[in-house]
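Lesson 9: reading folded outputs for more than one chain in a single document. The general rule is that every protein is listed as its sequence immediately followed by its structure tokens, and records are never interleaved. Here is the first one.
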Amino acid sequence: MMVYFLRHKPLKIALFALCCLNLVEAQLTAQNPTKKEIANYTFRVIYMDYQLNAGSKSIRVGANLKFLDGGEIYQIGSYAGTLSRSFNYSGPANLIFYKEELNEGGEEQLLPLVSVNLGSPGQKVILVVQDFSGDFHSFAYDIGVDKFKLGYLQVLNLSNQTVGVRIGEEKAMIAPMKAKNYKLKSQQNRFLTRFAIAVMEEDATSIIENRRLAVSMKKRKLIIIHRKTGHSDEMTYSSFAIEETWPTQNISDDDLEALDLKEYQEPTKMPDGL
């Protein structure tokens, strides 16, 4: 039996289905891979929770995602809707994230949560999405400067509808789960450019953004178009500044704990005399 340790506590890989077993075996074979199987990656995570705050008595502020690298377990405390710090990974292109739960005996165990195909080696942004039904999905995108160059703005359509996006004078239709790179054009380093997003529906076109956007020729920006948290019929977008990442030593993040709404609903008691 193989036992892992996290914060000096024994962890057992517990599997309840054959598909889960296959996922874990694929990850663990990275300990003795062939040269063709080894690849080096640097990645950051964006966690998106479509169920967040949807009629719950507690608020999930993010997700605790665990992964294996070099035989060690590391944790990413990924706040919802934000870009995590950088982590390194060496192994097969199929990276598996795990969740930690207690089994019937009260022991901590790691269960496969979602896997992602990283593709070719390099720098990646990994989207981890929990949909309205609670299922997890994950996608990896290249953010190396050779593929996502300075002075560009990338728009990723994570919705199931075609969207029209205008950056400056360039307009394009972006299909579901597709991305488009826009080249910024200006003699100035920092400037404001026209920015508009339209959602194409069967009987109408909805404008969800139409304004000036601050951009820089020496930086990169990623815009993700997606459904609103807790609202399956409304669209919005999130913007992220993408900086070049460099390999560094992996250090686990602290646990992210859900916020209990009851703590914020109780009246605050003021000291006497105030």
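And here is the second record, again sequence then tokens.
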Amino acid sequence: MPTETGQISINFEGERADTVFFDPLFLGMEASGMFRVMTNVVHKKDIGFIGHLSNILQKDTGCGFTPKGDLSMYQRTIEVDRVKVDLTQCADELNNTIWEESKRKGVNQNDLRGTIMSQVALTRINQGISLDTNRLFWFGNKKSTDVSYNLLDGMWTIHLPELTNGANPPTPYVNSNSGAPLAPGDALELLKEIWKAQSLNLKGFPRASKRFFVSRSIYEAYMDDLENLGGGDAGRTATINGVEMLAYRGIPLVEMPLWDEYSETDLNQPDKHLALLTIPSNLVLATDLMSSMNQVKIWFDDFREQTDYKVKFKLGSNYVHPSLMVAAY
């Protein structure tokens, strides 16, 4: 059990933990425009939907009642799993470094609470959770033997393969010819095929509200394709100065360089060309942000002479409407 030495331990729980730690973390992710953060999922959350009604008008031929149309209702369940961070830091690691001056003096020199190093540690923990959350959102797999990936099920590893399976899948699928580098013109043709595969529902949304999330291999190949198209002075200027944001038929491309890194280094799948056309709000990162079970703790163990950090919360990835996505892999 931790032994107190006069310095008050930091212990945020529930709403206090939300304000100090979780709010900036998850709301910052939502502000990035990649997905929607659902913040009140303690275990699971059912989302109800009512289908569109059409062709319900009919000729009134007099007295009587003739039902026409079907008010279809369905629901989806968003689930979260428990995750945590356990980190320990020994003050001796700071000796003979530029950080040694940040240590306390005397008998409390190994207690890092309240020092610049504890602030740095919390910042790094926050950044690490953000990176891990993005990685797991896309590539998590509960059945994996890799403890870094089996925390939750991700979009590319579980959800999208299930949604694109079969003769008439709920989510349209396009083969991106992964496994080999893209040849000249391939990226342009791939985006065209994804565009054509949109459901009528997805086509009905304004182009500015949609995004092509693409791996770096596709993004850079598309840039090459645009440059190779020429275009006179405008084409040369774009080649020299670059383009601030690429788009295809008015839909912005969002480069996802970590997709390439995780696919190659962690999943042993080089040249994995991934692309997802959707509306960012259709992708859901679920968490128990408002739960009283949230914890952010920092304490000093006098016996071990180490400062410990603990963060506990829940996390899950999911989607809303399968028809509002087109997946290429």
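What the second record shows: Residues 21 and 123 are 10 Å apart (CA to CA).
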